[in-house]
Amino acid sequence: MSSNVDSAETQTVVKKQKKQKPARKQVKPGEVEKKEAPQTGKEYNIWYNKWAGGDREDSYSNKTKSQTRCNIRKDSGLTRADTTGVKYCCLFFSRGCCPYGWECEYLHTLPDASKALPDTSKDCFARDKFSDYRDDMGGVGSFTRQNRTLYIGRIKETGTGVETEEVVRRHFKEWGEIEKIRVLQYRSVAFVTYVSESHAQFAKEAMACQSLDNDEILNVRWATEDPNPVSKVTEKQRLEEIGREAIQARMDPRIVDAMRAVRALEDGDGLDDEEETVDGEGEAEPQAKRRRLEIEDARDTPPEVEPVPKQEQPQQPTGLLSADTLEGLKYFAEIRKRNALANNPVKVAAVPPPRGLGLADYGSDDE
What we know:
This protein is α+β, with helices and mostly antiparallel strands. Among the domains are: about 45-105, no CATH class; about 150-225, RRM (RNA recognition motif) domain (Alpha-Beta Plaits, 2-Layer Sandwich); about 235-265, no CATH class. It is about 35% helix and about 10% strand. It contains twelve helices and eight strands. The chain has helices spanning about 1-20, 55-60, 70-75, 80-85, 90-95, 160-170, 195-205, 230-250, 255-265, 285-300, 325-345, 345-350; strands at about 45, 50, 150-155, 180-185, 190-195, 220, 275-280, 285. Strands 4-5-3-6 form a four-stranded antiparallel beta sheet, with helices on one face. Strands 1-2 form a two-stranded antiparallel ribbon. Helix 9 packs across helix 10. The radius of gyration is 42 Å and the shape is elongated. The protein starts with a helix and ends in a 17-residue tail after the last helix.
């Protein structure tokens, strides 16, 4: 039965691979007209790509609609990146104006949310992130915060908030799975939160200066942090869960099982209720009990240590003088004895040998 299921899954994968086609060229070289930002001030800021010193409303009204738009179903396909191993998407493909098609060095598809990017300091288009957001919340974004929410401005509302939400969802669901949408009625503003940050990055470039159903020109920016305390707690828990899963995925499962067994033993929880395993001889023994016995044996067995050869320790003195001092006194006493024997051997023989200064046995019971 399992072999039939595996063969069916294999056939499904093969069919999906056969359906993939080379990516088509979205535009012809030179077809898209390059338009410079209209002058609304006195100085041009290359960082913000706009003129400084002009009226804010004039800069918004002078926004031009994008000439192209990406269509995931038609434009997605194989490129050279599928053979070279590049994991980043084509920026011009997301905007619908890549003239290379299957010859492009980047992916012509949506980013894979199940796989992490090689470098977390870059977005899905291989652009470097910065430590903080720009003043207008545009650009690539920041690597200090995982932002999955887009700010959508200049929406033309023609009905209720529910109808506007359906229009926004229909246009933005093409770029990835949406977690939630919030529309601020009578303010022409909506917030779209994606499940994956990479999909939010792709959607921000794909929907910049695009229109919904009323020929408006959208203002797509990164959303600021949600001030709602409940949202802050939920986001913190979600990030902690992602970090916990990432750590567990990199740990050796044997170490995880051993840690759980030791923790259960320390807490006094019984592990005999787990499933029993049958060995080769047909004898059933609880797996947890066997693991516990192995841990207890490892604790009771002393570590094997090579015996250290005993070294002769010098005799510690029991008096006030050190061993070197006593040796010196014995040496001088022996010389004195020899001199006395040489001068008067008979008289000295009757005299008992000297006992030194009487300090060698200080503190003993005899003295």
